[in-house]
Design brief:
The protein is mostly helical and about 290 residues long. The protein has two domains: about 100 residues, Tyrosine recombinase, N-terminal domain (DNA polymerase, domain 1), CATH 1.10.150.130; about 160 residues, hpI Integrase, Chain A (Orthogonal Bundle). It contains 13 helices and three strands. A three-stranded antiparallel beta sheet has the order 1-2-3, with no helix packed on it. A hairpin with a 4-residue loop joins strand 1 and strand 2. The chain is elongated, with a radius of gyration of 23 Å. The termini are far apart. The mean pLDDT is about 85.
């Protein structure tokens, strides 16, 4: 079977298992690049059982030479393992070559985050009412920007004080409580500031019907420049900040995991931070 034919079957498998459009697009893009590289190497169509461990390692080396970060190469290994696991289970190939490829080590760095005082300083210079409410929501719920922008009016239940995320990352759903601090902000937005629109989106605009992630991030960049800060603040940094706030207030890491919608505690642990003062305090407990 040709490599391209096997990838087409894998795509159907992902669709049947309701993988998100973003995941499907990412997998297919990486596998297409991998196929194209090997077709150039073999000077023609490549059969699935012709691909060797060396072929994969040479492609990973090529990615490194092109300047791709370790995270990109690590994701490629993960995708190839997923693809070859499927191909092996379906008996499309006998030799799972991807299983013998070493993982790419990624240097873990602490994430940028904002403290409570920094956040208040940030929102104080954001004049766009819609973006400001979105920023508050991201900081106080830990929502991913796409999850927030996909919310409909029905998803945000101010009476029950919950936000229902119906199609989060990995197509997973979860319910996030609305804090007592965020509730009046959202209530005021609905009563006074939400524009008249035919859109069902919670964060609606009058013209297009939906706020864009690029607009939100652009507003954040302008605010950071106005404040003279030398740090990068994006919508995703607000999610980091939410997680960091919870950890600093000794919220159980499993609860943080559920609020963030992480499948693994290992992912959640990346969002924890320790300042030098806290580390100094820890060693001085002796």
């Amino acid at each position: 079977m040709l490599l391209r034919e096997a990838i087409a079957l894998f795509k159907k498998h992902l669709i049947i298992n309701e993988r998100s459009p973003e995941t499907l697009r990412a997998y297919m893009t990486e596998l297409e690049n991998f196929t194209h590289y090997n077709e150039n190497q073999y000077n023609g169509p490549v059969y699935l059982d012709e691909v060797t461990v060396q072929d994969i390692e040479e492609y990973l080396h090529e990615l490194k030479v092109r300047g791709n970060h370790a995270s990109r190469r690590s994701r490629m290994v993960y995708i190839l393992r997923s693809f070859y696991n499927f191909a092996t289970r379906q008996e499309l190939v006998n030799n799972n070559v991807a299983a013998r490829v070493d993982s790419i080590k990624i240097q873990q760095v602490e994430r940028t985050f904002l403290g409570d005082e920094e956040f208040e300083e940030l929102v104080s210079v954001i004049m766009n009412d819609l973006v400001r409410v979105l920023i508050y929501t991201l900081f106080m719920t830990g929502l991913r920007i796409k999850e927030a922008l996909d919310l409909t009016m029905q998803d945000v239940d101010l009476t029950a004080k919950v936000i229902r995320v119906k199609h989060g990352k990995g197509n997973k759903s979860r319910i996030i409580p609305i804090s007592d601090r965020l509730l009046p902000i959202l209530q005021h937005y609905i009563a006074k500031n939400r524009p008249i629109s035919n859109s069902s989106k919670f964060f609606a605009t009058k013209v297009s019907g939906q706020l864009s992630a690029s607009m939100a991030n652009k507003t954040l960049r302008q605010a950071v420049t106005q404040l003279g800060w030398h740090k990068k603040v994006t919508c995703h940094v607000l999610r980091h900040s939410f997680a960091s706030h919870l950890v600093r207030h000794n919220v159980n890491i499993v609860r943080v995991q559920k609020l963030l919608g992480h499948a693994s505690l290992k992912t959640t642990s990346i969002y924890t931070h320790a300042s030098m003062e806290e580390l100094s305090e820890a060693v001085n407990t002796f």
